[in-house]
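ok so I'm stuck.
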Amino acid sequence: MKRRLVTLSIAFAIVLAPLGPAVQAKPSKLTPKAEIEKRLNKKETRVKVKLNNGSELKGRVTQSNENGFTLSDEKSGKNTEIAYADVQNIEGRGMSKKKKTFIITGVVVGVAVTALILALKNGPGNFNLNGININF
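replied:
not stuck anymore, here's the structure
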């Protein structure tokens, strides 16, 4: 029985190992203007902006134009005009949809593997989970 658990654990690790690098954030290679336009189109407006002078601003992008964009501070509601030339880096805030999808997939696979282990432990046709008996 112990051998089965070890085998299933190793199989689980082999299946999920390639998903690790896909979850890591990749820095954007787009120009600040292209990054802002992309985020506005996708409605992912929460950003963290690093300026050339070293300061960082957090907020929501509310609008953009040819020379810059407007960042609205979520706490104070204050709008700040930022020129694209002053921007060093733009990052999204919060988890991306891809990361959330991988987390949910990992949880579902974990539950499925746990159910499989319990089914194998109790023999074919018997599934017992805290007093709930399921026969198949």
